[in-house]
Structure to design on (365 residues):
């Protein structure tokens, strides 16, 4: 793919994004020209994935500065953007970073600074993901060395933490791309990821575009494959990691971690520092878990053989449904976290070695 998942329009009034609701059946680019449009696109998941919603929100604030760059207007917009999706901390991280940068400046200088800072967030995201890819590649090469007979590496992933979920390159899929570039024979088991099917719709599409061998599996298949020795490693992304290493990610991640633990399969989490929330400790108790419309569960959308888009009901009319977007995998089930600053164990002492430094430091870090 020649371009990123979001890019500013020349003249700095709007951004273009890929409308991910249309994938894999249509590649549609949408233009977002106001903070309200950005908030809607995040809430309705035209854009999704923790790093991408953070970057997009940063541009939402940049658009706000074109209208009214006063402290009050920025605070209102920041509040609206942060309220769109509660779980991924990258959103608050990016908004806080923008507000801190802008409030330090006279109002007249805020517009230019805001567009610059949002672009910086995007560049840093791509750089972080490339570094995650290189660190992850080292782990994958070790996994391959330990594999009797070597050969093909089978990676299982959940949801979409590829380049579609970031500005570019992806987090969980960055090591897969690095492995491909290095010349390893890599195959990805793609969890369909009910109910929104980010695996079946987005990861499968992305990997097909990249020419990477992959197979879509039902969410319930991973444990069986692990028992049969057909998964060499699990790599997932994350929406928030606490200082003790609990990992919040797409609903169903926890079950994969349990199965990986039971079968001695390494369970790696790709974690840009923008996803580390140093303020929180106990993930299950403290991370807000998004609950989405039950219709995502009771109905399913796709394309008929005729090419017509259709949405059909799956469940009996009247059966209640409950739709949590995320779950928490306790640190003890995480083999390692792959950050842009290196690979660390999922515990407070190891995570502390990643703190501080430049603007990409952890939230609260
Ligand atoms: O609800 P989504 O599609 O935004 O959820 C995405 C995930 O859970 C990803 O795994 C996570 O955001 C990491 S993306 C690099």
């Amino acid at each position: 793919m020649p371009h990123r998942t979001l890019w500013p329009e020349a003249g700095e009034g709007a951004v273009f994004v890929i409308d991910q609701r249309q994938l894999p059946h249509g590649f549609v680019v949408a233009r977002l020209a106001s903070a309200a449009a950005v908030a809607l696109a995040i809430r309705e998941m035209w854009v999704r994935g923790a790093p991408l919603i953070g970057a997009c929100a940063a541009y939402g604030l940049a658009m706000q500065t074109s209208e009214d760059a006063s402290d009050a207007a920025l605070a209102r917009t920041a509040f609206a953007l942060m309220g769109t999706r509660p779980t991924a901390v990258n959103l608050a991280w990016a908004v806080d970073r923008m507000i801190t940068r802008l409030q330090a400046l006279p109002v007249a200088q805020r517009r230019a600074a805001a567009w610059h800072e949002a672009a910086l967030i995007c560049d840093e995201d791509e750089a972080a993901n490339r570094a995650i890819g290189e660190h992850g590649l080292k782990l994958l090469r070790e996994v391959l060395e330990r594999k009797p007979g070597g050969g093909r590496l089978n990676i299982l992933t959940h949801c979409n933490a590829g380049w579609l979920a970031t500005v570019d390159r992806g987090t969980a899929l960055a090591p897969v791309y690095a492995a491909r570039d290095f010349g390893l024979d890599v195959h990805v088991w793609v969890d369909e990821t009910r109910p929104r099917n980010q695996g079946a719709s987005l990861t499968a599409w992305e990997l097909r575009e990249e020419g990477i061998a992959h197979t879509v599996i039902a969410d319930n298949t991973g444990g069986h494959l692990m028992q049969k020795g057909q998964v060499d490693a699990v790599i997932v992304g994350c929406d928030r990691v606490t200082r003790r290493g609990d990992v919040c990610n797409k609903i169903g991640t926890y079950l994969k971690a349990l199965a990986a633990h039971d079968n001695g399969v390494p369970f790696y989490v790709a974690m840009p520092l923008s996803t580390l929330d140093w303020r929180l400790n106990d993930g299950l108790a403290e991370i807000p878990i998004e609950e989405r419309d039950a219709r995502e569960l009771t109905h399913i959308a796709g394309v008929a053989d005729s090419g017509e888009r259709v949405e059909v009901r799956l469940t009996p009319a009247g059966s209640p449904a409950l739709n949590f977007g995320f779950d928490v995998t306790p640190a003890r089930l995480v083999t390692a976290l792959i950050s842009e600053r290196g690979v660390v164990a999922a515990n407070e002492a190891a995570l502390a070695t990643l703190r501080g430094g430049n603007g990409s430091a952890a939230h609260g870090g």
Summary: The chain has twelve helices and 16 strands. The first helix runs from residue 35 to 43. The pocket of MRU is lined by residues 48-51, 88, 159, 161, 165-166, 171, 198, 237-239, 249-250, 325 (CB under 6 Å). The chain has a mean pLDDT of 96.
